[in-house]
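so ive been stuck on this for like two days lol. basically i have the seq below and the ligand is zinc ion, smiles is in there too. i just want the complex predicted, nothing fancy, no docking runs or whatever. if the output looks off dont worry ill sanity check it later, just need somthing to start from for the group meeting slides
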Amino acid sequence: MIPATTRRENVDPSSIERAAGDLGHIRSHGVRRLLIYCSAGLYCHHSAIVDTDRWPDETVLLDLDRRAACTKCGMIGADVRPNWSERPPPEPDRRTVAAAMKEIVVVCLAIEAETGMVDSAAPFVVIPFQRPHRGGIYHNEPDVTAQLRPGERQARFEAEWSDGEWKFGKRVADP
Ligand SMILES: [Zn+2]
C-alpha cells in the first residue's frame, strides 16, 4: 500500500495540465493534434496522433479520454495528451537579443611617436571587456574618432559584433 502523500508527489505534471485543458487552450499554444495512447498500455502499445479539427474548442481532454476506443484491441478509454512536439518554437525576446549583442569596448587611439600627440587619423586599437580575444586594430572609422575630444586618447563605445568585426555605436560615459 502506498501512502497518499507519496502518490500525490508521483503525479505526472503533464496530467495535471491535461486535466485543466480543453482544445481551445491547446490550440492557443499552436498545437492542433493529440497523442492518444491505449489504456491497455503494457499489453497493447497502440498509440495514434489524431487531428482535432473535428472537435470544438470547448472539448475537454478528459472527456476524450473516456470516450476513445482503441482501434487495435477495442479497449475503451485512452490517455489523451496534446502533441506538444508540434508546438512552434517561442519567439526570441528582442530586448534580450539586443542586450546580448551590444557590448562596451574601449577604443584606444595611437600616439604619434615623434610628437607624443594623439593621432586620430591613425588606426586605433579596440579592447572588448567581455571577449578580449575579439580585440583588434581598426581604421577608417571617422564616426568613432569624431566622438573623441582633441587630445583625448581613449573612450568607451557601444559596439556590436557582426560578421567578424565590431560595428561601433554611440560613445558611452566613462566609469
Ligand atoms: Zn489497444
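The chain has two domains: 4-86, 94-172. Strands lie at 33-38, 47-51, 78-82, 102-108, 110-111, 118-119, 124-128, 136-138, 154-162, 165-172.
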